[in-house]
Structure formats: structure tokens, C-alpha cells
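hey
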């Protein structure tokens, strides 16, 4: 981004564009600093088991409140990290911060699972598996309580490498989930070869399932697909009680969404666990 800025300046490209690249260059510096100095934080969204309505897990979601810029959406800073070579730092931060905070939650519920998002740029990183397993050992986390979320697109960018990485993580006892299932444009062939334990049905299907019969049938087919393959089905984006009921009737195992619980700081989740214990 700095080079782009220099080029923009020397070639007299219009000011609006130069301002934008200057902004991106500065944002990159701030993000790098924030990752190195551990200035990001984790929020946790509850994952609910639908049959009994119990809290069984949390998904770790990165938050960045930049002192100068205010809070910046994850979609923005994660994309920036991926484009500027900071994906490795982001992965290291995400895994460590999530497992550190998860350890505090496990003190109240030892069985609570923790889902962590892996960037599509994580797979080519040297030492990725060791890095994750080191963090699991450091925080004394039961491997089976760690869920690593990857998207179809991320896996298909480099299927052989992804398969090898995921096999090793699976052998170590961690669980692999497909995030945003149904949204990526890719074949289902990876489901044959990859050690996937969960399908997370993308919120775009779940949101429309209450009003659109076609979406509802798609969702129930995805639940069946998961079960036929011996995987668990997780619905994302439950925003109303109606969707929770519908998904429960379809036999969906677990769900997340604003109606069931918003992403929240560790302290709030600790309060929630104390109340439900
Ligand atoms: P995701 O993994 O699919 O996470 C779900 C996103 O949907 C989260 O957005 C969550 O706040 C939002 N969400 C949850 N329930 C609802 C709902 O009922 N309605 C709606 N409209 N949205 C809901 P968020 O936190 O902005 O994160 C966006 C994406 O950024 C995540 O999508 C994930 O792909 C990525 N991300 C977040 N944290 C990390 C991280 O630490 N590392 C990496 N690599 N990616 C991350
Ligand atoms: Mg996710
Ligand atoms: Mg998702
Ligand atoms: Mg996503």
C-alpha cells in the first residue's frame, strides 16, 4: 500500500484516490501494531444446542477498537490482513486469544467448545499445525473442544495442502467445520476426502427459511446431507424464535444468531454461564 501511495503521488493520480491509499497504508500500520501489541480483543457468540436449548459452545470473533478510528468491522481488517501479508500474525493472534479466553470460560463449563475462524490465507503458512497445537497445549485445552472453521473457498484454493493440514489437525483430535456452507461456489468433492465434522449452514439460507419454502427445503436438505455424512449441522443467523423452532423441527443440531445470543465480551459470557450453571 505504501508503494501504491508513492506511485500515486509521483504519477499525479487524482487526490481522492491518493487519500484512499494513504488511508489504507496507515490502516495497515495500525493493524500490524495492534496485532503485535495484542490490542485486538475477542468476543464470543453463544452456540446453542437446539433440542434442549443449552449453551454448548462459543464462536470467537475478533474485534478491533482502534483508538483513532473507532471500531473497525472484521470483514475490513481481516481482508486487509490477508492482502498485506499479515494473515500469519492474524492466525497466531486469533488462536491464542481465543484459547486464552476460552480457558476462563472452561473454568465454569469444562465441556464448552470453542470455534475459531481460520483465514483462507492460513493454509500456506509454514508451521500452521504446530502453531495451533502449541496454543492448545499452552492453554491446556482439550483438543476435542476446539473447532476450526474454514470456508469451502479457502479449502479449494489449495485442496491437497488443505487436506494434509486438516488431516493432521483431525488426527490431533481437533474438529473441522465448514463455515458459510452453501455460499461458496465450489464442488462438494472435498466432503469425500476432508475430515469435516460440522457443516455451518450459511445465514443467507437460514434467514429466508421462514418465509420462502425453497430456502426452507434447501436448509433441511443441508441438515440431512450433514447427517448422512455423519456430521453435525449448525445453523447461522437465527434472528427470530420462528427460525429456531423451524431448525429444531428439521433436526438441526446447533445454532447461532442474534436471537440466541449476540457476540459479547468474555465477562458477559462468564455472567451467562454463572446464571445457567
Ligand atoms: P463468520 O465466521 O461467518 O461469523 C459470523 C458472523 O455473523 C459474525 O460477524 C457474527 O457477528 C455475525 N452474526 C451472528 N449472528 C448473526 C445474526 O443473527 N444475524 C446477522 N446478520 N449476523 C450474525 P463478524 O463478527 O462481523 O465477523 C465477520 C467474519 O469475519 C466472520 O464470519 C469470519 O469469517 C471473520 N472473522 C471474525 N473473527 C475472525 C478471526 O479471528 N480470524 C479470522 N480469520 N476471521 C475472523
Ligand atoms: Mg465462523
Ligand atoms: Mg459463517
Ligand atoms: Mg464468514
Amino acid at each position: 500500500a505504501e508503494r501504491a501511495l508513492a506511485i500515486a503521488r509521483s504519477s499525479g493520480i487524482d487526490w481522492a484516490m491518493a487519500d484512499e491509499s494513504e488511508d489504507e497504508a496507515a490502516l495497515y500500520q495500525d493493524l500490524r501494531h495492534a496485532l503485535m501489541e495484542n490490542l485486538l480483543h475477542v468476543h464470543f457468540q453463544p452456540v446453542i444446542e437446539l433440542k434442549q436449548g443449552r449453551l454448548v459452545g462459543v464462536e470467537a470473533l475478533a474485534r478491533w477498537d482502534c483508538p483513532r478510528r473507532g471500531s473497525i468491522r472484521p470483514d475490513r481488517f481481516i481482508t486487509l490482513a490477508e492482502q498485506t501479508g499479515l494473515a500469519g500474525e492474524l492466525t497466531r493472534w486469533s488462536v491464542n486469544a481465543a484459547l486464552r479466553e476460552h480457558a476462563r470460560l472452561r473454568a465454569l463449563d469444562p465441556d464448552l467448545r470453542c470455534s475459531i475462524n481460520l483465514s483462507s490465507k492460513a493454509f500456506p503458512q509454514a508451521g500452521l499445525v504446530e502453531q495451533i497445537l502449541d496454543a492448545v497445549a499452552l492453554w491446556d485445552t482439550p483438543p476435542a473442544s476446539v473447532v476450526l472453521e474454514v470456508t469451502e473457498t479457502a479449502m479449494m484454493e489449495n485442496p491437497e495442502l488443505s487436506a494434509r493440514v486438516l488431516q493432521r489437525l483431525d488426527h490431533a483430535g481437533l474438529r473441522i467445520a465448514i463455515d458459510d456452507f452453501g455460499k461458496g461456489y465450489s464442488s462438494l468433492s472435498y466432503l469425500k476426502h476432508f475430515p469435516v465434522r460440522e457443516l455451518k449452514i450459511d445465514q443467507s439460507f437460514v434467514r429466508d427459511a421462514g418465509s420462502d419454502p425453497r430456502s426452507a427445503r434447501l436448509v433441511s436438505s443441508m441438515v440431512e446431507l450433514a447427517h448422512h455424512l455423519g456430521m453435525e449441522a449448525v445453523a447461522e443467523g437465527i434472528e427470530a424464535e420462528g427460525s429456531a423452532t423451524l431448525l429444531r423441527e428439521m433436526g438441526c443440531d446447533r445454532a447461532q444468531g442474534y436471537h440466541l445470543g449476540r457476540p459479547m465480551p468474555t465477562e458477559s459470557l462468564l455472567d451467562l454461564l454463572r446464571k445457567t450453571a
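The two ends are 50 Å apart (CA to CA). Residues 45 and 129 are 25 Å apart (CA to CA).
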